Amino acid sequence: MALELNKLTHAVENLSASAAQRLTELAERLPMAQATLKAIGLADDELHRKVQAALKFRWAGAIPTAEPVDAAFPLPPHPARATVIAADGSQIYPDRHGISLYYLINIGSIIFRHGLPLAPSTASLPEVFFEDADLYEEDGGQIPSVKIDSERDLRELAALARSAATEAPAAPTVTLLDNGLLLYITLQAPNQKLSDAVIEAYLDQLTALRDSGAAPAGVVDRPRAASVVRLLRLAALAENEITDAELRALGAFQHLTDALLFNFLQPGERSALFVNASPANIDNYQRRGHTIYLFYLNAGRPGKDSLLRVEVPEWVAKDKAKLDLVHTAIVEQCKVTDGFPYVLMRAHELAVVTMAERREFDQMVTGALIRRGLSPSVSQKAQGKAWTGSAKRKYPR
Amino acid sequence: MTETTTIGRLLRSSTTGYVFGCAVPEPEVPLFGAFVKAPAQRKQTEIVGLIYNIAFEDDPFVRQMVATPDLDEAYIQDQRVNRQVPIEVSVLAVGYRSLTNGHGFVYSLPPQPPITLDRISSCSGEEVLDFTARFDYLRLILDSPDAPADELIATSLHHAAAMRPAQDRTFFLREAGKELARLLNRDLARLENLLRRIKP
Fold this sequence. Notes:
The complex is a heterodimer.
Chain A: H1 9-40, H2 45-55, E1 62-64, E2 82-92, E3 103-114, E4 121-129, H3 132-135, H4 145-167, E5 173-177, H5 185-188, H6 192-212, E6 215-221, H7 227-236, H8 244-248, H9 258-261, E7 274-276, H10 279-285, E8 292-298, E9 307-313, H11 314-317, H12 320-334, H13 342-351, H14 355-371, H15 380-389
Parallel strand pairs in A: 2-5, 5-6
Antiparallel strand pairs in A: 1-7, 2-3, 3-4, 6-9, 7-8, 8-9
Helix pairs in contact in A: 1-7, 4-6
Chain B: E1 6-14, E2 17-22, E3 35-40, E4 45-56, H1 60-66, H2 73-82, E5 87-98, E6 119-122, H3 125-131, H4 138-143, H5 149-162, H6 166-183, H7 188-198
Antiparallel strand pairs in B: 1-2, 1-6, 2-5, 3-4, 3-6, 4-5
Protein backbone atom coordinates (compact mmCIF):
# COMPACT_ATOMS: atom_id res chain seq x y z
CA MET A 1 0.00 0.00 0.00
CA ALA A 2 1.22 3.48 -0.90
CA LEU A 3 -0.20 5.16 2.18
CA GLU A 4 2.15 4.12 4.96
CA LEU A 5 -0.10 4.59 7.96
CA ASN A 6 2.70 4.07 10.48
CA LYS A 7 4.18 7.40 9.32
CA LEU A 8 0.94 9.19 10.18
CA THR A 9 0.27 8.01 13.71
CA HIS A 10 1.79 11.13 15.30
CA ALA A 11 -0.17 13.44 12.97
CA VAL A 12 -3.41 11.61 13.73
CA GLU A 13 -2.81 12.04 17.47
CA ASN A 14 -2.26 15.76 16.94
CA LEU A 15 -5.38 15.95 14.77
CA SER A 16 -7.57 14.49 17.50
CA ALA A 17 -6.01 16.70 20.18
CA SER A 18 -6.56 19.78 18.00
CA ALA A 19 -10.20 18.83 17.36
CA ALA A 20 -10.85 18.34 21.07
CA GLN A 21 -9.20 21.67 21.92
CA ARG A 22 -11.21 23.52 19.24
CA LEU A 23 -14.44 22.03 20.57
CA THR A 24 -13.58 23.12 24.11
CA GLU A 25 -12.82 26.67 22.95
CA LEU A 26 -16.04 26.86 20.96
CA ALA A 27 -18.06 25.52 23.90
CA GLU A 28 -16.62 28.29 26.08
CA ARG A 29 -17.65 31.01 23.62
CA LEU A 30 -21.03 29.52 22.68
CA PRO A 31 -23.00 30.88 25.72
CA MET A 32 -21.82 34.39 24.81
CA ALA A 33 -23.03 33.92 21.22
CA GLN A 34 -26.38 32.51 22.32
CA ALA A 35 -26.79 35.38 24.79
CA THR A 36 -26.16 37.82 21.92
CA LEU A 37 -28.84 36.06 19.87
CA LYS A 38 -31.29 36.30 22.77
CA ALA A 39 -30.43 39.96 23.31
CA ILE A 40 -31.31 40.75 19.69
CA GLY A 41 -34.71 39.08 19.97
CA LEU A 42 -36.94 40.90 17.52
CA ALA A 43 -34.62 42.87 15.24
CA ASP A 44 -34.98 46.61 15.80
CA ASP A 45 -34.57 49.50 13.35
CA GLU A 46 -30.92 49.95 14.29
CA LEU A 47 -30.07 46.36 13.36
CA HIS A 48 -31.97 46.67 10.08
CA ARG A 49 -29.98 49.83 9.31
CA LYS A 50 -26.77 47.91 10.02
CA VAL A 51 -27.89 45.12 7.70
CA GLN A 52 -28.51 47.62 4.89
CA ALA A 53 -25.05 49.08 5.47
CA ALA A 54 -23.46 45.62 5.45
CA LEU A 55 -25.20 44.61 2.21
CA LYS A 56 -23.21 47.32 0.44
CA PHE A 57 -20.11 45.20 1.19
CA ARG A 58 -21.77 42.04 -0.28
CA TRP A 59 -22.10 40.70 3.26
CA ALA A 60 -23.06 36.99 3.30
CA GLY A 61 -24.98 36.92 6.56
CA ALA A 62 -28.57 36.20 7.55
CA ILE A 63 -31.11 39.03 7.46
CA PRO A 64 -33.60 38.90 10.33
CA THR A 65 -37.32 38.79 9.57
CA ALA A 66 -40.43 39.59 11.61
CA GLU A 67 -39.73 36.52 13.79
CA PRO A 68 -37.55 36.94 16.91
CA VAL A 69 -34.11 35.59 15.97
CA ASP A 70 -33.91 33.42 19.10
CA ALA A 71 -37.37 31.90 18.68
CA ALA A 72 -38.04 28.16 18.55
CA PHE A 73 -41.21 27.08 16.74
CA PRO A 74 -42.80 23.77 17.75
CA LEU A 75 -43.54 20.96 15.32
CA PRO A 76 -46.87 21.47 13.51
CA PRO A 77 -49.15 18.44 13.10
CA HIS A 78 -48.54 16.29 10.03
CA PRO A 79 -51.54 16.00 7.71
CA ALA A 80 -53.01 12.54 7.22
CA ARG A 81 -52.42 12.85 3.49
CA ALA A 82 -49.38 14.65 2.02
CA THR A 83 -46.98 14.04 -0.83
CA VAL A 84 -43.22 14.47 -0.62
CA ILE A 85 -41.21 14.49 -3.83
CA ALA A 86 -37.41 14.38 -3.95
CA ALA A 87 -34.85 14.47 -6.74
CA ASP A 88 -31.10 14.02 -6.73
CA GLY A 89 -28.50 13.84 -9.46
CA SER A 90 -25.11 12.36 -10.10
CA GLN A 91 -22.70 12.77 -12.96
CA ILE A 92 -19.71 11.35 -14.78
CA TYR A 93 -17.38 14.20 -15.75
CA PRO A 94 -15.58 14.12 -19.11
CA ASP A 95 -12.37 12.13 -18.90
CA ARG A 96 -9.78 13.01 -21.53
CA HIS A 97 -7.91 9.82 -20.62
CA GLY A 98 -11.00 7.65 -21.19
CA ILE A 99 -12.09 5.79 -24.30
CA SER A 100 -14.33 8.61 -25.49
CA LEU A 101 -15.09 12.16 -24.48
CA TYR A 102 -18.56 12.46 -22.99
CA TYR A 103 -20.31 13.40 -19.80
CA LEU A 104 -23.32 11.80 -18.20
CA ILE A 105 -26.00 13.06 -15.84
CA ASN A 106 -28.37 10.73 -14.02
CA ILE A 107 -31.39 12.09 -12.14
CA GLY A 108 -33.16 9.93 -9.58
CA SER A 109 -36.55 10.94 -8.25
CA ILE A 110 -39.23 9.60 -5.95
CA ILE A 111 -42.85 10.55 -5.26
CA PHE A 112 -43.83 9.47 -1.76
CA ARG A 113 -47.52 9.67 -0.90
CA HIS A 114 -48.06 9.68 2.87
CA GLY A 115 -51.37 8.21 3.87
CA LEU A 116 -51.83 6.01 0.81
CA PRO A 117 -50.89 2.32 1.02
CA LEU A 118 -49.04 2.48 -2.30
CA ALA A 119 -45.44 1.98 -3.25
CA PRO A 120 -43.87 5.36 -4.10
CA SER A 121 -43.26 6.15 -7.76
CA THR A 122 -39.56 6.11 -8.59
CA ALA A 123 -37.58 7.02 -11.69
CA SER A 124 -34.02 7.28 -12.96
CA LEU A 125 -33.35 9.41 -16.01
CA PRO A 126 -29.85 9.18 -17.49
CA GLU A 127 -28.62 11.49 -20.27
CA VAL A 128 -25.29 11.37 -22.06
CA PHE A 129 -23.71 14.42 -23.74
CA PHE A 130 -21.11 13.99 -26.45
CA GLU A 131 -21.55 16.61 -29.19
CA ASP A 132 -18.95 19.35 -29.57
CA ALA A 133 -21.52 21.93 -28.48
CA ASP A 134 -21.96 19.96 -25.24
CA LEU A 135 -18.29 19.44 -24.52
CA TYR A 136 -16.57 22.65 -25.53
CA GLU A 137 -16.90 26.30 -24.65
CA GLU A 138 -16.99 29.07 -27.25
CA ASP A 139 -13.27 29.67 -26.69
CA GLY A 140 -12.53 26.00 -27.47
CA GLY A 141 -11.86 25.00 -23.89
CA GLN A 142 -13.43 21.90 -22.36
CA ILE A 143 -16.69 22.43 -20.48
CA PRO A 144 -15.95 23.30 -16.83
CA SER A 145 -17.21 20.92 -14.16
CA VAL A 146 -19.22 23.73 -12.56
CA LYS A 147 -21.36 23.90 -15.71
CA ILE A 148 -22.05 20.17 -15.56
CA ASP A 149 -22.98 20.57 -11.89
CA SER A 150 -25.38 23.34 -12.88
CA GLU A 151 -26.93 21.23 -15.63
CA ARG A 152 -27.46 18.52 -13.01
CA ASP A 153 -28.97 20.97 -10.49
CA LEU A 154 -31.27 22.32 -13.17
CA ARG A 155 -32.47 18.83 -14.09
CA GLU A 156 -33.09 18.01 -10.43
CA LEU A 157 -35.35 21.03 -10.06
CA ALA A 158 -37.05 20.35 -13.42
CA ALA A 159 -37.82 16.77 -12.29
CA LEU A 160 -39.41 18.16 -9.13
CA ALA A 161 -41.44 20.72 -11.10
CA ARG A 162 -42.74 18.03 -13.51
CA SER A 163 -43.84 15.74 -10.70
CA ALA A 164 -45.30 18.58 -8.63
CA ALA A 165 -47.50 19.65 -11.54
CA THR A 166 -49.33 16.32 -11.41
CA GLU A 167 -49.16 15.63 -7.65
CA ALA A 168 -49.86 19.01 -6.02
CA PRO A 169 -53.50 19.22 -7.18
CA ALA A 170 -54.22 15.94 -5.37
CA ALA A 171 -52.64 16.61 -1.97
CA PRO A 172 -50.46 19.11 -0.06
CA THR A 173 -47.04 18.62 -1.68
CA VAL A 174 -43.47 19.31 -0.59
CA THR A 175 -40.51 18.95 -2.95
CA LEU A 176 -37.04 18.39 -1.51
CA LEU A 177 -33.52 18.87 -2.82
CA ASP A 178 -30.37 17.63 -1.12
CA ASN A 179 -28.76 21.06 -1.25
CA GLY A 180 -29.49 24.72 -0.77
CA LEU A 181 -31.66 26.48 -3.31
CA LEU A 182 -28.97 29.04 -4.18
CA LEU A 183 -27.03 27.70 -7.14
CA TYR A 184 -23.33 27.20 -6.53
CA ILE A 185 -22.61 28.44 -10.03
CA THR A 186 -23.44 31.96 -8.85
CA LEU A 187 -20.13 31.88 -6.97
CA GLN A 188 -18.07 29.73 -9.32
CA ALA A 189 -19.12 30.48 -12.90
CA PRO A 190 -16.18 31.17 -15.18
CA ASN A 191 -18.21 33.69 -17.14
CA GLN A 192 -21.23 35.83 -16.41
CA LYS A 193 -23.13 34.83 -19.56
CA LEU A 194 -23.05 31.18 -18.55
CA SER A 195 -24.03 32.01 -15.00
CA ASP A 196 -26.96 34.19 -16.09
CA ALA A 197 -28.33 31.58 -18.50
CA VAL A 198 -28.25 28.84 -15.88
CA ILE A 199 -29.78 31.00 -13.17
CA GLU A 200 -32.62 32.17 -15.42
CA ALA A 201 -33.44 28.56 -16.36
CA TYR A 202 -33.32 27.59 -12.69
CA LEU A 203 -35.61 30.43 -11.68
CA ASP A 204 -38.03 29.39 -14.45
CA GLN A 205 -38.30 26.00 -12.74
CA LEU A 206 -38.90 27.67 -9.37
CA THR A 207 -41.70 29.64 -11.03
CA ALA A 208 -43.16 26.38 -12.36
CA LEU A 209 -43.01 24.95 -8.85
CA ARG A 210 -44.77 28.03 -7.44
CA ASP A 211 -47.47 27.71 -10.11
CA SER A 212 -47.99 24.04 -9.26
CA GLY A 213 -48.90 24.91 -5.66
CA ALA A 214 -46.14 22.75 -4.19
CA ALA A 215 -43.77 23.91 -1.43
CA PRO A 216 -40.11 23.41 -2.40
CA ALA A 217 -37.26 23.25 0.11
CA GLY A 218 -33.52 22.64 -0.03
CA VAL A 219 -32.09 20.58 2.81
CA VAL A 220 -28.47 20.77 3.98
CA ASP A 221 -27.29 18.15 6.44
CA ARG A 222 -24.53 19.01 8.94
CA PRO A 223 -24.44 22.65 7.81
CA ARG A 224 -21.15 24.47 8.23
CA ALA A 225 -22.57 27.91 7.42
CA ALA A 226 -22.16 30.87 9.76
CA SER A 227 -24.82 33.16 8.28
CA VAL A 228 -26.57 33.91 11.59
CA VAL A 229 -23.20 34.06 13.37
CA ARG A 230 -22.31 36.86 10.93
CA LEU A 231 -25.49 38.65 12.00
CA LEU A 232 -24.32 38.45 15.63
CA ARG A 233 -21.01 39.97 14.64
CA LEU A 234 -22.84 42.72 12.76
CA ALA A 235 -25.06 43.42 15.77
CA ALA A 236 -21.98 43.77 17.96
CA LEU A 237 -20.49 46.46 15.69
CA ALA A 238 -21.41 50.11 15.99
CA GLU A 239 -22.92 51.56 12.81
CA ASN A 240 -19.80 53.61 12.13
CA GLU A 241 -17.59 50.50 12.52
CA ILE A 242 -19.15 48.62 9.60
CA THR A 243 -16.44 48.06 7.03
CA ASP A 244 -15.59 45.18 4.74
CA ALA A 245 -12.65 44.17 6.94
CA GLU A 246 -14.69 44.28 10.16
CA LEU A 247 -17.43 42.19 8.60
CA ARG A 248 -15.00 39.56 7.38
CA ALA A 249 -13.27 39.25 10.76
CA LEU A 250 -15.73 37.48 13.02
CA GLY A 251 -13.86 38.46 16.19
CA ALA A 252 -15.21 36.69 19.26
CA PHE A 253 -17.52 34.64 16.99
CA GLN A 254 -14.65 33.18 14.92
CA HIS A 255 -15.19 29.51 13.95
CA LEU A 256 -18.64 29.34 15.53
CA THR A 257 -21.31 27.93 13.21
CA ASP A 258 -25.06 28.36 12.99
CA ALA A 259 -25.45 24.67 13.83
CA LEU A 260 -23.72 25.23 17.17
CA LEU A 261 -25.65 28.44 17.78
CA PHE A 262 -29.02 26.70 17.38
CA ASN A 263 -28.20 23.66 19.50
CA PHE A 264 -30.96 24.80 21.88
CA LEU A 265 -33.62 23.64 19.39
CA GLN A 266 -35.48 20.60 20.72
CA PRO A 267 -36.31 17.70 18.38
CA GLY A 268 -39.00 18.86 15.95
CA GLU A 269 -38.43 22.59 16.56
CA ARG A 270 -37.37 25.07 13.92
CA SER A 271 -35.56 28.36 14.32
CA ALA A 272 -36.73 31.75 13.14
CA LEU A 273 -36.74 32.50 9.42
CA PHE A 274 -33.91 34.58 7.97
CA VAL A 275 -33.28 35.92 4.48
CA ASN A 276 -30.10 34.60 2.92
CA ALA A 277 -28.04 37.75 2.29
CA SER A 278 -25.90 36.10 -0.38
CA PRO A 279 -25.33 38.54 -3.29
CA ALA A 280 -26.75 35.89 -5.64
CA ASN A 281 -30.01 36.00 -3.70
CA ILE A 282 -30.22 39.76 -3.70
CA ASP A 283 -29.05 40.19 -7.32
CA ASN A 284 -30.94 37.38 -9.03
CA TYR A 285 -33.53 35.52 -6.97
CA GLN A 286 -35.15 38.58 -5.37
CA ARG A 287 -35.74 40.16 -8.79
CA ARG A 288 -37.84 37.16 -9.88
CA GLY A 289 -39.82 36.95 -6.62
CA HIS A 290 -37.93 33.89 -5.37
CA THR A 291 -35.86 35.40 -2.53
CA ILE A 292 -34.41 32.53 -0.57
CA TYR A 293 -35.13 32.28 3.16
CA LEU A 294 -33.53 29.86 5.57
CA PHE A 295 -34.20 28.31 8.93
CA TYR A 296 -32.61 25.63 11.07
CA LEU A 297 -34.53 22.54 12.06
CA ASN A 298 -33.81 19.84 14.61
CA ALA A 299 -35.04 16.77 12.73
CA GLY A 300 -33.67 14.33 15.28
CA ARG A 301 -35.24 12.59 18.25
CA PRO A 302 -34.71 12.86 22.00
CA GLY A 303 -31.12 11.83 22.67
CA LYS A 304 -30.00 12.25 19.08
CA ASP A 305 -30.24 15.74 17.63
CA SER A 306 -29.99 16.24 13.87
CA LEU A 307 -29.72 19.86 12.84
CA LEU A 308 -30.60 20.64 9.22
CA ARG A 309 -30.44 23.93 7.37
CA VAL A 310 -33.58 24.36 5.27
CA GLU A 311 -33.90 26.88 2.45
CA VAL A 312 -37.29 27.91 1.04
CA PRO A 313 -38.36 30.57 -1.45
CA GLU A 314 -40.12 33.70 -0.23
CA TRP A 315 -43.58 32.49 -1.27
CA VAL A 316 -43.19 29.49 1.03
CA ALA A 317 -41.69 31.50 3.88
CA LYS A 318 -44.61 33.94 3.81
CA ASP A 319 -47.32 31.29 3.51
CA LYS A 320 -47.83 29.79 6.98
CA ALA A 321 -49.61 26.68 5.69
CA LYS A 322 -46.79 25.91 3.25
CA LEU A 323 -44.05 26.69 5.78
CA ASP A 324 -45.67 24.44 8.38
CA LEU A 325 -46.03 21.71 5.77
CA VAL A 326 -42.30 21.87 4.89
CA HIS A 327 -41.43 21.87 8.61
CA THR A 328 -43.57 18.86 9.54
CA ALA A 329 -42.94 16.88 6.34
CA ILE A 330 -39.17 16.99 6.79
CA VAL A 331 -39.41 15.88 10.42
CA GLU A 332 -41.85 13.09 9.50
CA GLN A 333 -39.52 11.88 6.74
CA CYS A 334 -36.58 11.87 9.16
CA LYS A 335 -38.27 9.57 11.67
CA VAL A 336 -37.40 6.38 9.82
CA THR A 337 -33.85 7.42 8.96
CA ASP A 338 -32.78 9.06 12.22
CA GLY A 339 -32.28 12.59 10.98
CA PHE A 340 -32.23 12.95 7.20
CA PRO A 341 -35.27 12.75 4.90
CA TYR A 342 -35.98 9.23 3.66
CA VAL A 343 -36.93 10.45 0.18
CA LEU A 344 -33.58 12.19 -0.25
CA MET A 345 -31.76 8.99 0.67
CA ARG A 346 -33.85 7.11 -1.89
CA ALA A 347 -33.41 9.76 -4.58
CA HIS A 348 -29.65 9.52 -4.07
CA GLU A 349 -29.82 5.74 -4.32
CA LEU A 350 -31.74 6.07 -7.59
CA ALA A 351 -29.29 8.63 -9.00
CA VAL A 352 -25.88 7.44 -7.95
CA VAL A 353 -23.66 6.01 -10.70
CA THR A 354 -21.43 3.39 -9.13
CA MET A 355 -17.93 2.57 -10.35
CA ALA A 356 -19.21 -0.80 -11.56
CA GLU A 357 -21.97 0.89 -13.59
CA ARG A 358 -19.47 3.32 -15.03
CA ARG A 359 -17.25 0.43 -16.14
CA GLU A 360 -20.27 -1.25 -17.76
CA PHE A 361 -21.21 1.95 -19.57
CA ASP A 362 -17.63 2.33 -20.83
CA GLN A 363 -17.83 -1.24 -22.13
CA MET A 364 -21.06 -0.37 -23.97
CA VAL A 365 -19.37 2.64 -25.55
CA THR A 366 -16.30 0.57 -26.46
CA GLY A 367 -18.47 -2.06 -28.19
CA ALA A 368 -20.39 0.58 -30.14
CA LEU A 369 -17.15 2.26 -31.28
CA ILE A 370 -15.66 -1.05 -32.40
CA ARG A 371 -18.78 -1.81 -34.44
CA ARG A 372 -18.15 1.50 -36.24
CA GLY A 373 -14.66 0.33 -37.16
CA LEU A 374 -12.91 2.49 -34.56
CA SER A 375 -10.21 1.34 -32.18
CA PRO A 376 -11.04 2.89 -28.82
CA SER A 377 -8.48 2.83 -26.06
CA VAL A 378 -7.77 4.65 -22.85
CA SER A 379 -4.65 6.81 -22.53
CA GLN A 380 -1.47 5.09 -21.43
CA LYS A 381 -1.66 7.05 -18.19
CA ALA A 382 -5.14 5.66 -17.46
CA GLN A 383 -3.93 2.19 -18.45
CA GLY A 384 -1.03 2.56 -16.03
CA LYS A 385 -3.39 3.46 -13.22
CA ALA A 386 -5.48 0.39 -13.98
CA TRP A 387 -2.35 -1.78 -13.89
CA THR A 388 -0.99 -0.39 -10.66
CA GLY A 389 -4.11 0.48 -8.76
CA SER A 390 -6.15 -2.69 -8.81
CA ALA A 391 -4.06 -5.45 -7.28
CA LYS A 392 -1.14 -3.72 -5.66
CA ARG A 393 1.16 -5.87 -3.60
CA LYS A 394 3.71 -4.90 -1.06
CA TYR A 395 6.85 -6.91 -0.69
CA PRO A 396 8.82 -6.84 2.56
CA ARG A 397 12.02 -4.86 2.34
CA MET B 1 -42.92 -28.49 -22.99
CA THR B 2 -45.82 -27.09 -21.00
CA GLU B 3 -46.02 -23.27 -20.77
CA THR B 4 -45.55 -22.14 -17.17
CA THR B 5 -44.81 -18.91 -15.29
CA THR B 6 -41.27 -17.59 -14.92
CA ILE B 7 -40.66 -17.01 -11.23
CA GLY B 8 -37.03 -15.88 -11.21
CA ARG B 9 -33.60 -16.08 -12.77
CA LEU B 10 -30.64 -18.19 -11.82
CA LEU B 11 -27.98 -16.69 -9.54
CA ARG B 12 -25.67 -19.69 -9.04
CA SER B 13 -25.80 -23.43 -9.51
CA SER B 14 -24.06 -26.75 -9.07
CA THR B 15 -24.87 -30.30 -10.07
CA THR B 16 -26.86 -30.88 -6.88
CA GLY B 17 -28.99 -27.75 -7.02
CA TYR B 18 -29.32 -24.11 -7.80
CA VAL B 19 -30.21 -20.74 -6.30
CA PHE B 20 -32.40 -18.25 -8.11
CA GLY B 21 -33.34 -14.67 -7.32
CA CYS B 22 -36.76 -13.13 -7.61
CA ALA B 23 -38.80 -10.10 -6.62
CA VAL B 24 -41.25 -10.11 -3.73
CA PRO B 25 -43.02 -13.47 -3.85
CA GLU B 26 -46.59 -13.50 -5.00
CA PRO B 27 -48.96 -15.65 -2.94
CA GLU B 28 -48.70 -18.53 -5.43
CA VAL B 29 -44.91 -18.59 -6.06
CA PRO B 30 -42.43 -19.59 -4.79
CA LEU B 31 -43.35 -21.90 -1.92
CA PHE B 32 -41.33 -24.28 0.19
CA GLY B 33 -41.59 -27.78 -1.30
CA ALA B 34 -42.83 -26.54 -4.70
CA PHE B 35 -41.66 -28.21 -7.92
CA VAL B 36 -39.69 -25.91 -10.23
CA LYS B 37 -37.66 -26.40 -13.39
CA ALA B 38 -34.65 -24.84 -15.07
CA PRO B 39 -33.24 -25.27 -18.58
CA ALA B 40 -29.73 -26.70 -19.05
CA GLN B 41 -27.41 -27.81 -21.83
CA ARG B 42 -28.68 -25.09 -24.16
CA LYS B 43 -32.27 -26.03 -23.45
CA GLN B 44 -31.71 -29.68 -24.37
CA THR B 45 -32.58 -30.74 -20.85
CA GLU B 46 -34.83 -29.49 -18.11
CA ILE B 47 -33.84 -29.91 -14.48
CA VAL B 48 -36.61 -30.51 -11.97
CA GLY B 49 -36.01 -29.27 -8.44
CA LEU B 50 -37.70 -28.72 -5.12
CA ILE B 51 -37.58 -25.38 -3.30
CA TYR B 52 -36.06 -26.03 0.12
CA ASN B 53 -35.12 -22.54 1.34
CA ILE B 54 -36.31 -18.97 0.73
CA ALA B 55 -34.07 -16.24 2.13
CA PHE B 56 -34.82 -12.51 2.28
CA GLU B 57 -31.58 -10.53 2.24
CA ASP B 58 -31.34 -7.30 4.20
CA ASP B 59 -29.14 -4.21 4.00
CA PRO B 60 -28.20 -1.38 6.38
CA PHE B 61 -31.09 0.76 5.11
CA VAL B 62 -33.68 -1.88 6.02
CA ARG B 63 -32.01 -2.55 9.37
CA GLN B 64 -32.29 1.15 10.22
CA MET B 65 -36.01 1.09 9.52
CA VAL B 66 -36.83 -2.07 11.45
CA ALA B 67 -36.87 -0.27 14.81
CA THR B 68 -39.22 2.50 13.64
CA PRO B 69 -42.62 2.37 15.32
CA ASP B 70 -45.76 3.05 13.25
CA LEU B 71 -44.06 2.73 9.88
CA ASP B 72 -46.19 4.33 7.14
CA GLU B 73 -47.30 1.67 4.64
CA ALA B 74 -45.68 3.63 1.80
CA TYR B 75 -42.20 3.04 3.35
CA ILE B 76 -42.88 -0.69 3.50
CA GLN B 77 -44.12 -0.80 -0.08
CA ASP B 78 -41.11 1.20 -1.26
CA GLN B 79 -38.69 -1.27 0.29
CA ARG B 80 -40.62 -4.30 -0.94
CA VAL B 81 -41.62 -3.23 -4.42
CA ASN B 82 -39.14 -0.59 -5.58
CA ARG B 83 -35.85 -1.43 -3.92
CA GLN B 84 -36.06 -5.12 -4.77
CA VAL B 85 -33.68 -6.32 -2.13
CA PRO B 86 -32.91 -9.76 -3.58
CA ILE B 87 -34.83 -12.80 -2.45
CA GLU B 88 -32.76 -15.95 -2.80
CA VAL B 89 -34.53 -19.23 -3.38
CA SER B 90 -32.55 -22.48 -2.99
CA VAL B 91 -33.56 -25.49 -5.04
CA LEU B 92 -32.51 -29.15 -4.69
CA ALA B 93 -32.11 -30.96 -8.04
CA VAL B 94 -34.17 -34.17 -7.95
CA GLY B 95 -34.25 -35.19 -11.61
CA TYR B 96 -34.23 -34.06 -15.20
CA ARG B 97 -35.56 -34.90 -18.62
CA SER B 98 -34.32 -34.54 -22.17
CA LEU B 99 -36.31 -32.14 -24.29
CA THR B 100 -34.97 -33.59 -27.54
CA ASN B 101 -35.51 -37.38 -27.32
CA GLY B 102 -38.98 -37.34 -25.75
CA HIS B 103 -38.02 -39.86 -23.07
CA GLY B 104 -39.44 -39.49 -19.60
CA PHE B 105 -37.88 -38.14 -16.45
CA VAL B 106 -34.56 -39.42 -15.12
CA TYR B 107 -34.43 -39.55 -11.31
CA SER B 108 -30.79 -38.69 -10.75
CA LEU B 109 -28.50 -35.69 -10.81
CA PRO B 110 -28.42 -33.78 -14.11
CA PRO B 111 -25.41 -33.94 -16.48
CA GLN B 112 -24.91 -30.16 -16.25
CA PRO B 113 -26.40 -27.46 -14.02
CA PRO B 114 -28.29 -24.44 -15.41
CA ILE B 115 -26.26 -21.28 -15.98
CA THR B 116 -26.45 -17.70 -14.75
CA LEU B 117 -29.66 -15.79 -15.47
CA ASP B 118 -31.48 -18.83 -16.87
CA ARG B 119 -35.24 -18.54 -16.37
CA ILE B 120 -36.68 -20.59 -13.53
CA SER B 121 -40.31 -21.67 -13.88
CA SER B 122 -42.78 -23.45 -11.70
CA CYS B 123 -43.76 -26.92 -12.95
CA SER B 124 -47.27 -27.26 -14.28
CA GLY B 125 -49.72 -29.59 -12.58
CA GLU B 126 -49.30 -32.04 -15.46
CA GLU B 127 -45.51 -32.04 -15.07
CA VAL B 128 -45.78 -32.63 -11.32
CA LEU B 129 -48.11 -35.57 -12.01
CA ASP B 130 -45.67 -37.05 -14.54
CA PHE B 131 -42.62 -36.50 -12.34
CA THR B 132 -44.20 -37.98 -9.21
CA ALA B 133 -45.52 -41.05 -11.05
CA ARG B 134 -42.41 -42.66 -9.57
CA PHE B 135 -40.80 -42.10 -6.17
CA ASP B 136 -37.16 -42.60 -7.15
CA TYR B 137 -36.42 -38.90 -6.41
CA LEU B 138 -37.08 -39.38 -2.69
CA ARG B 139 -33.64 -40.97 -2.34
CA LEU B 140 -31.97 -37.78 -3.62
CA ILE B 141 -33.80 -35.74 -0.98
CA LEU B 142 -32.86 -38.13 1.82
CA ASP B 143 -29.21 -38.00 0.71
CA SER B 144 -29.08 -34.19 0.56
CA PRO B 145 -26.75 -32.65 3.18
CA ASP B 146 -28.27 -29.17 2.73
CA ALA B 147 -32.04 -29.53 2.51
CA PRO B 148 -34.31 -30.24 5.53
CA ALA B 149 -35.10 -33.62 4.00
CA ASP B 150 -38.06 -34.83 6.07
CA GLU B 151 -39.89 -31.50 5.89
CA LEU B 152 -39.21 -31.29 2.17
CA ILE B 153 -40.44 -34.82 1.47
CA ALA B 154 -43.64 -34.33 3.45
CA THR B 155 -44.47 -30.95 1.90
CA SER B 156 -43.63 -31.94 -1.67
CA LEU B 157 -45.68 -35.13 -1.41
CA HIS B 158 -48.67 -33.15 -0.20
CA HIS B 159 -48.17 -30.72 -3.13
CA ALA B 160 -48.07 -33.66 -5.54
CA ALA B 161 -51.11 -35.28 -3.93
CA ALA B 162 -53.09 -32.08 -4.30
CA MET B 163 -52.51 -32.19 -8.07
CA ARG B 164 -54.34 -35.52 -8.28
CA PRO B 165 -58.08 -36.21 -8.28
CA ALA B 166 -59.44 -36.45 -4.73
CA GLN B 167 -60.09 -40.18 -5.03
CA ASP B 168 -56.43 -40.88 -5.97
CA ARG B 169 -54.71 -38.91 -3.22
CA THR B 170 -54.82 -41.51 -0.48
CA PHE B 171 -53.49 -44.20 -2.80
CA PHE B 172 -50.67 -41.87 -3.91
CA LEU B 173 -49.56 -41.04 -0.39
CA ARG B 174 -49.81 -44.68 0.68
CA GLU B 175 -47.53 -45.71 -2.21
CA ALA B 176 -45.11 -42.95 -1.25
CA GLY B 177 -45.12 -44.32 2.31
CA LYS B 178 -44.21 -47.77 1.02
CA GLU B 179 -41.25 -46.31 -0.90
CA LEU B 180 -40.09 -44.43 2.22
CA ALA B 181 -40.38 -47.65 4.23
CA ARG B 182 -37.99 -49.30 1.77
CA LEU B 183 -35.53 -46.39 1.91
CA LEU B 184 -35.62 -45.95 5.70
CA ASN B 185 -35.93 -49.55 6.86
CA ARG B 186 -32.91 -49.05 9.12
CA ASP B 187 -34.20 -45.85 10.74
CA LEU B 188 -37.62 -46.72 12.06
CA ALA B 189 -37.98 -43.66 14.31
CA ARG B 190 -37.42 -41.32 11.36
CA LEU B 191 -39.71 -43.42 9.15
CA GLU B 192 -42.50 -43.27 11.73
CA ASN B 193 -42.19 -39.51 11.96
CA LEU B 194 -42.30 -39.15 8.18
CA LEU B 195 -45.26 -41.46 7.81
CA ARG B 196 -47.15 -39.42 10.38
CA ARG B 197 -46.39 -36.28 8.35
CA ILE B 198 -47.70 -37.68 5.07
CA LYS B 199 -50.70 -39.45 6.50
CA PRO B 200 -53.71 -38.57 4.30
